[in-house]
Amino acid sequence: MVRSEWRRWGVLCLIVTGIVFLAACGSAQDTEHQEHSGDHKSMEQQTENVKVDLMTNPTTIQVEKTVEIHAMISQKGKPVNDADKVRFEIWPKGDDDKKESLKTKRMGDGMYVAEKTFKQTGEYEVMYHVTARGGHVMDSQTITVRP
């Protein structure tokens, strides 16, 4: 009888140990999932509120005159001077096959600038691509080139 009692306790201990082990593994996976979700949220928070103001100098753009295209980048009212990459894509409106990519120069105080001389009048799309603080922000704006 002593042997069967030990056997019962042994089986019971194995079952309890198995249950505890499985519960611990499930808990570790939940924690890992929460940590990765937290990483994703913190990445979103890093790029959250990144604001890009696109402007030109001069504001009236003329054919065969050099224009500066500015991207003023800020987050929560403070300049973003640590963007990993800022570039512009420019193309005649309605003609996506003629996209041209322009690299920018960091000027400080959140300002990034590229220069362009337009050869023809018309409307152009200017799209900025900003990679900063773990994320990517992009949008476009239409500009008009006058004679």
UniProtKB/TrEMBL annotation:
<dbReference type="InterPro" id="IPR032693">
    <property type="entry name" value="YtkA-like_dom"/>
</dbReference>
<protein>
    <submittedName>
        <fullName>YtkA-like</fullName>
    </submittedName>
</protein>
<dbReference type="Pfam" id="PF13115">
    <property type="entry name" value="YtkA"/>
</dbReference>
<feature type="domain" description="YtkA-like">
    <location>
        <begin position="44"/>
        <end position="129"/>
    </location>
</feature>
